[in-house]
Each structure stands twice: as structure tokens, then as C-alpha cells.
Write a structure and sequence with these properties.
The complex is a heterodimer of chains A (127) and B (239).
Chain A: H1 2-5, E1 18-27, H2 33-56, E2 59-66, E3 71-77, H3 81-89, E4 93-94, E5 97-107, H4 110-117
Antiparallel strand pairs in A: 1-3, 1-5, 2-3, 4-5
Helix pairs in contact in A: 2-3
Chain B: E1 4-8, H1 19-29, E2 33-39, H2 43-55, E3 61-68, H3 73-83, E4 89-93, H4 97-105, E5 111-113, H5 126-135, E6 138-142, H6 143-147, H7 151-171, E7 175-178, H8 190-199, H9 204-211, H10 213-226, E8 230-232, E9 235-236
Helix pairs in contact in B: 4-5, 8-9
Classes of the chains: A alpha+beta (127), B alpha/beta (239).
Chain lengths: 127, 239
């Protein structure tokens, strides 16, 4: 039923190329995911504008956020990686907490990002 | 690749964090070396900073820098002659056009910090850049200027820094990217600062050099002078 409502996924050659940015939030206090997501959007929209943000094709992978270690993944278009990185470097506060928003690295898939930067190595951990 | 941040201000001159906190954070962020660049207040304060730095035991390279915040060109020159022999990196806080110009014309200066600060233009003209190139004075791209401004002022700051990047490329003036941090929360990883510079129009290769080989060159040249191995430009003591 659901499949009929959605268009079929495009073949890889037709899909836009994407990159996954692994990040780490350094802070004195615990950060809530909701505040983090709002701040990321706010920072990117402020720096790149609406047009730039749409080109950057931003998605915050909520499921991949590790609340304990304050590490997560952001998806963006491969052409806009440097600009997105720059926008994220300008985050100073999340809510009332002072932070350093640190990009750990960039990879081509969620799986590889988790393996490289989150230290996950077994297949059953990629959930 | 080794990265250096040559503009971090400690608690001793209006900053928020102690040198220990700065060192710890710089190591976490992946720097090979930093320069504590406090505002010049007096020779006693300079000695105090020197002692504070020498007391710290770490594998991070820590250099002593001094920032001259002068109100007039004469004051700048006076402070310069007092401290040039005593510190490794001498920098001038820019903003006033006459000070920007005088700093570019004086070969005792190593880096001119934020020439666009508090101005409605980029703060540098052709003659400044020509002199900076001849005297090998680096122009700083200050991250804190962007970080601490919002909306309209930030857009002006970015515009002026972009203009300076373009002009420095044209006149072949060295550039250095610094955090200008006054607290550990203003510090960022070298790669993030490179992305900022890249977003403002600096090509990625030059941005890498601005955080690695250019600071290293400044440090190396000044070390030679302080150790008496280099007398002046082109005259060195060879053993």
C-alpha cells in the first residue's frame, strides 16, 4: 500500500551525491536533542540563507545521535560540505549552554561514518 | 600536517581562560602549537606571562606572543622597540587605518591582526599590501570577529575579510588564520577554521598553508633572530 503511494527510489547515478558529517558537541552541560536540532538549523539558515540551505540538502539523522557521547551525523550535498562545516563552526551556544561544535570527519555513508568516527565495528550495531 | 593558532588571549590580559585550560583544549582540538598573544600592558606583565608559560609542562608547542593595541603610530613604534627583542611573535591589533599602514611598513611586526575590525571598509589599501609583501608581514583572518558578530555586522565583516583575502592573493601577501580566542569556547579545530576561510573565498590549499607552514615560517625565522643565528634579511650565521 505504502509502496504505491511513494515514487520508486531513483537509481544511484540519478541521485544527488551526498556526504555524512560526523560531529561532536563539547559542552559543560548535557545538550538536549531538540535544542541541538533547532540550533543546527538556525546556524545553517543564518549563514547560508534559505537558498543556500536548500542547495546544501541538509538532513539531521536523529536516529544516529548518541546522547551520552553527544555525537551525531548530518547529511548534506557533497558540493556544499565546506560551507556547511563553516556554518556549524559558528555555533557558540545551544540553549544557554556554551559549546564547541566539532566536526570529526566526513564520509560517504552512514555506515562508514559510524565505523570511522563512532568506533562501531560490528554489523548488528548499525541500527 | 601540523597546525598552529597564533592568536589566543589568556586570562592575564582580559581573556577568560587560564593557559592550562587553553593548552588542554588546543591538544583536544588537534593543534601542534599555539601562541599566547596577550595585549601588551607592561614589561612586568610580559615577564609574568613568560614565567607562566615556562611553568607549563606539555608536549604542545607554546610560544610567547604580544599584541600591541596602540592608540597612535608613535605609541605602536615605542612599544615595538621595547618588546621586539623579548618576545617571539610581535603582532599589532589593527582597525585604525594609520596603524594598519604603519604596521605594514614596519618589518619588526610579524602579523597584523584584524585590519578590518570596527571599520566600514577592509582597512587596507594597495600601498599597505605592497609594504606588507616587502616586509613579509602576515595579515590575519580572525575567526572571533565573525563568531561574535551577527546578521548585518557579520555580513559586513565577512565581506571585508573576503576583500582582504582577494587583495592578499593578488599582492602575494602571506595570510594566517587564527581563532583570536579569548576563552576556550572560542576555539575551533584547525579544519573548521580552514572551512570558514574557504567559505570566504580562500582556496583550500592556501587555507591549509595559512594554518601550518606560514605560522611555522614566522616562528622559525624569529627563533633564528632571537638565538642570534640571523642578523637581518639575507644575513645568517652559518656554523
Amino acid at each position: 500500500m505504502d509502496e504505491e503511494k511513494r515514487p520508486k527510489p531513483l537509481s544511484p547515478s540519478l541521485r544527488g551525491r551526498r556526504r555524512y558529517l560526523a560531529f561532536h558537541v563539547i559542552s559543560e552541560q548535557k545538550i538536549l536533542l531538540e535544542d541541538l536540532v533547532n540550533t543546527i538549523w538556525h546556524a545553517i539558515l543564518n549563514f547560508l540563507g534559505e537558498m543556500g540551505t536548500s542547495k546544501a540538502d541538509i538532513r539531521i539523522i536523529n536516529d544516529a545521535y548518541d546522547e551520552k557521547r553527544q555525537m551525531g551525523i548530518i547529511k548534506c550535498s557533497h558540493d556544499e560540505v565546506e560551507r556547511v562545516r563553516a556554518a556549524l563552526a559558528l555555533i557558540q551556544r545551544i540553549g544557554d549552554v556554551r559549546v564547541i561544535f566539532r566536526i570529526l570527519g566526513i564520509s560517504g555513508s552512514i555506515k562508514a561514518t559510524k565505523m570511522k568516527f563512532f568506533g562501531e565495528s560490528r554489523l548488528d550495531e548499525f541500527t | 600536517m601540523k597546525f598552529y593558532d597564533l592568536h589566543i588571549q589568556s586570562k592575564l590580559s582580559g581573556g577568560e581562560s587560564t593557559i592550562e585550560q587553553i593548552v588542554e583544549q588546543a591538544k583536544k582540538l588537534g593543534y601542534a602549537g599555539i601562541a599566547i598573544c596577550d595585549n601588551y600592558q607592561s614589561l612586568e606583565k610580559l615577564e609574568e606571562l613568560k614565567n607562566e608559560i615556562s611553568r607549563i609542562q606539555t608536549d604542545l608547542e607554546i610560544y610567547l606572543g604580544m599584541k600591541i593595541q596602540a592608540k597612535s603610530v608613535n605609541e605602536m613604534k615605542e612599544i615595538l622597540s621595547k618588546i621586539r627583542e623579548k618576545v617571539l611573535i610581535v603582532t599589532v591589533s589593527g582597525g585604525d587605518f594609520l596603524i594598519n599602514k604603519a604596521a605594514c611598513e614596519d618589518s619588526r611586526v610579524d602579523i597584523l591582526f584584524h585590519p578590518e575590525s570596527g571599520r566600514f571598509d577592509n582597512g587596507l589599501d594597495e600601498s599597505c599590501l605592497e609594504s606588507a609583501r616587502q616586509n613579509n608581514i602576515a595579515i590575519e583572518i580572525n575567526f572571533r570577529e565573525i563568531l561574535n558578530s551577527f546578521r548585518k555586522p557579520r555580513s559586513y565583516t565577512i565581506n571585508h575579510i573576503s576583500q582582504n583575502i582577494e587583495l592578499c592573493n593578488h599582492f602575494k601577501v602571506p595570510m594566517t588564520i587564527c581563532s583570536g580566542a579569548q576563552s576556550i569556547w572560542d576555539m575551533r579545530t584547525p579544519r573548521d577554521l580552514i572551512s570558514i576561510a574557504n567559505a570566504m573565498g580562500m582556496d583550500i590549499g592556501s587555507a591549509f598553508l595559512s594554518m601550518s607552514s606560514i605560522p611555522l615560517q614566522i616562528i622559525g625565522e624569529n627563533k633564528k633572530i632571537l638565538e642570534g643565528k640571523k642578523i637581518t634579511e639575507g644575513v645568517e650565521v652559518v656554523e
